[in-house]
Design a protein that fits this description.
Elements (H helix, E strand, L loop, with lengths): L1 H14 L12 E6 L1 H4 L3 H12 L6 E6 L5 H11 L7 E5 L12 H20 L4 E5 L13 H25 L2 E3 L2 H15 L15 H14 L5 E8 L4 E4 L3 E7 L2 E6 L25 H5 L1 E7 L5 E6 L2 E6 H6 L1 E2 H4 L7 H25 L3 H7 L4 H24 L4 E9 L2
Parallel strand pairs: 1-2, 1-3, 3-4, 4-5, 6-10
Antiparallel strand pairs: 6-7, 8-9, 9-14, 10-13, 11-12, 11-14
């Protein structure tokens, strides 16, 4: 029954297509939103994916989360806080606070619609090539005010705001990320397996832990147009040869063994599957690997009906038909694989960068105009401080990019006993 539920969920995701942005080499992605963005989880997952999985070369990102913010508040600070950095792509995630945590009042609905429309227009006018209008997520059915009835009411409100975002994106000709629907679909399925304590939308019902943020990252990466083809390794057992797609290089191959150096990583998952603080459990209910994380092994001319594949320190058996068609190593070895340590290093560098950006924007850049009014004679000095901070952030962005170092790994295929 659990497998059937997962199949139904995956079928839903397959049908839930939407307009997508198109990343280009050297794009600079601004990730904007309220306190959920300021948690620096889904924004870290997005940037780590862009750097390590490399859907396009030389991408970079920056987060602009602000706790307690509403769409109309963000609209007022866009020019000073975001557009000064000249992003080429921007994502938004507003609505959690905008809805007022109750039934949707007409006045709030109008204010939200007008502000979100104005945000898209201002991004366009500011030179942003691609905008992704993200919907709000959801509140947890068990932990939100510890009252399922109130959670149901507010999720209806968030669903209405989601519909507005979808309409605005269509009207403005930009991409739309449906964050709300995946969270409401994953939540009951995951709770059925792990129990009601397995919150998907946070212990407080609003701010997700790692599991919910992975769902959010999935929605945004799909909307950003990431196709999920991390790489393909093709082995010919009879010829003793192997080939690799772009981003991977075969160093040595023989019958059943191939050594590879990879510059593109599969996305990696960590932690106790039963814990909301980990990313390893929620992937069962989310087609992240299928849609965004395909590192495929194809094995031709196997001598027997089954074979054992060893990748790093883990092994798994597959049929010859499965291997001839191609198996996704990222899905089959999601935690214990040769990229795990390197991936953690990239994620740590991204988190260091984004941890710098929050105080830089909130404590200094946002107040820069006020500081200049208070001490106009020091305007040039204040600008120099802002420029120095921007240079430091650029250094941290480069450090995050440079943390993606080639990974040398070996795949062994042998006849199963």
């Amino acid at each position: 029954m659990q497998r059937l539920a997962s199949i139904v969920l995956f079928a839903f995701f397959a049908l839930a297509g939407a307009a997508r942005a198109q990343l280009q080499p050297n794009d600079f992605v601004a990730v904007c939103g309220d306190s959920i963005t300021e948690q620096k989880l889904y924004s870290v997952y997005i940037e780590t994916y862009l750097l390590a999985c490399k859907p396009q070369p030389d991408l970079r990102a920056m987060q602009f989360g602000w706790g307690g913010e509403v769409s109309w508040g963000f609209l007022e600070r866009m020019d000073n806080d975001v557009l000064r950095y000249k992003p080429t792509v921007a994502t938004t995630c507003y609505g959690m606070n905008d809805g007022g945590y109750g039934p949707l009042a007409e006045e709030r609905a109008t204010k939200y619609r007008d502000a979100m429309t104005a945000i898209v227009k201002k991004f366009k006018d500011g030179g942003v090539r691609s905008v992704v209008v993200g919907s709000p997520g959801a509140v947890d059915s068990d932990t939100f005010r510890k009252d399922p009835a109130q959670a149901e009411v507010y999720n209806k409100t968030l669903g209405q705001l989601r519909d507005m975002c979808k309409q605005i994106a269509a009207e403005q000709g930009v991409a739309f990320a449906d964050v709300h629907e995946p969270m409401t679909q994953v939540m009951p399925a995951a709770k059925k397996k792990y129990g009601p304590a397995y919150h998907v939308c946070g212990a407080d019902g609003v701010h997700p832990a790692a599991n919910g943020h992975l769902v959010m990252a999935y929605a945004f990466l799909k909307a950003l147009g990431c196709d999920g083809d991390v790489g393909t390794i093709t082995m010919d057992m009879s010829a003793g040869k192997a080939e690799a797609s772009s981003g991977h290089k075969v160093i040595e191959s023989s019958s059943g063994t191939v050594e590879i150096v990879s510059e593109r990583y599969p996305f990696c998952f960590f932690g106790d599957p039963a814990s909301p603080e980990s990313t390893s459990g929620v992937i069962e209910f989310l087609p992240f690997n299928r849609d965004l994380n395909r590192f495929t092994l194809v094995v031709k001319n196997l001598p027997g009906p089954r074979a054992k594949v060893t990748w790093g320190g883990a092994s798994k058996e597959f049929s010859s038909e499965e291997l001839a068609k191609g198996v996704n190593l990222a899905a089959e070895f999601p935690v214990d694989n040769p990229f795990a340590d390197a991936f953690k290093s990239v994620e740590a560098a991204v988190r260091e960068q984004q941890n710098f950006e929050t105080p830089m924007i909130k404590q200094f850049v946002h107040s820069l105009r006020a500081f200049k009014q208070m001490v106009p004679a020091e305007g040039e000095a204040l600008d120099r401080v802002a420029d120095t901070m921007a240079k430091r952030d650029a250094e941290l962005q480069r450090a995050a990019r440079d943390a993606v170092k080639p990974v040398r790994h070996t795949i062994v295929v042998e006849r199963a006993r």
